[in-house]
Amino acid sequence: MKTVVKYRTVLLKLSGESLMGSLDYGLDPAMLQQYASDIKEAYLAGCRIGIVIGGGNIYRGMQGATTGIDRARGDYMGMMATLINSIALQDTLEQMGVSVRLLSGLAVDPIAEKMSRERAKRYLDQNNVVIMAAGTGNPYFTTDTGATLRALEIEADIFLKGTRVDGIYTADPEKDPTAIKYDRIHCQECYEKKLKIMDLTAFALCSDSKLPICVFDMNKKGNLYRIINGEHVGTLVHYD
């Protein structure tokens, strides 16, 4: 039975690196299962969920420069990597009985339908999880920027950035053991302290629209469900 959730519509941004799990690259089936299980739990609670996944576990566009690949073509390769991850998550969710629609910023019929704001909102209204792959469909933009654009298009109540870290810190906690975690932080303070939450284009889009951002540990089971039900998890970027 569906419950009343605090956040009715969310955009969940997942990093490709997180899908590696314990592997050095690629997709860890156990991690896919865990993510899909958590998404299903939030979906069954009545949350409308849009998802954008990175492709860093397979290919990162910027890496092309070191191999002599043209930047734009490298970015398109990165978009295809996000599509691979999105298909994998779609299949895992559907095996769990969740209705999923896959949209893409690039035209890749018959694998995915072309992304459009109206189509994404309609599918959400029809009780589907909507996965939006291939970023903006254009080179020179990150998946964070693509995810922010999709969040605004589906009128998300919050941007959820699921990572391997449990929030925003004064420094990278994986490199600096003295780093201190923020429970809440104002958008302006993020600018002033030059905290690397997401790329500046994506952060500016969120800021201009006053879209709250929650950075949290997606690898901890149940965190997604707790957030949509109003529990404090991770770090919240706010504007008040």
Q: What are its keywords?
A:
19% strand; two-stranded antiparallel ribbon; globular; alpha/beta; 8 helices; 36% helix
Q: Please, could you describe this protein's structure?
A:
- This protein has helices at residues 29-44, 64-67, 71-95, 117-125, 143-153, 187-192, 200-209, 223-228; strands spanning 9-14, 48-53, 100-104, 113-114, 129-133, 158-163, 168-169, 181-182, 184-186, 213-217, 235-238.
- The protein is α/β, with parallel strands linked by helices.
- The strands form 2 sheets. The protein has a 9-stranded mixed β-sheet, sandwiched between helices. Strands 7-8 form a two-stranded antiparallel sheet.
- The N and C termini lie far apart (34 Å).
Protein topology:
Layout: E1 9-14, H1 29-44, E2 48-53, H2 64-67, H3 71-95, E3 100-104, E4 113-114, H4 117-125, E5 129-133, H5 143-153, E6 158-163, E7 168-169, E8 181-182, E9 184-186, H6 187-192, H7 200-209, E10 213-217, H8 223-228, E11 235-238
Parallel strand pairs: 1-2, 1-6, 2-5, 3-4, 3-5, 6-10, 9-11
Antiparallel strand pairs: 7-8, 10-11
Helix pairs in contact: 1-3, 5-7
**Structural class by sheet pairing and helices:** alpha/beta
| Binned strand content | 15-25%
Number of helices: 8
Low-confidence stretches: none
Give average pLDDT, whole number. Answer: 93
The ordered string of helix (H) and strand (E) elements is EHEHHEEHEHEEEEHHEHE
Silhouette? globular
Radius of gyration: 17 Å
Which bin fits the share of residues in helices?
25-40%
End-to-end separation in angstroms reads 34 Å
Q: In what order do the strands lie side by side in the largest sheet?
A: 4-3-5-2-1-6-10-11-9
> What's the β-strand tally?
11
Largest sheet: 9 strands, mixed
